[in-house]
Amino acid sequence: MSLEPERLERFARHIVLPEIGGAGQVALAGKHLVLVGLGGIGSPALQYLAGAGIGKLTLVDDDRVDASNLQRQTLYNSRDVGHGKAVIAKRWVTGFDPALDVAISDRRITAENAHELVVGADLVLDGTDNFATRLAVSDACVAERVPLLSAAVGRFQGQVGAFAGHLPDQACYRCFVGDAFDAEDCDTCAEDGMLGAMAGWVATFAALQAVRVLLKDVSALGEADWGRVHLLDGLAPAMRSFTIAKDPECRACGSAG
Question: Is 189 annotated as catalytic?
Answer without folding.
Answer: yes
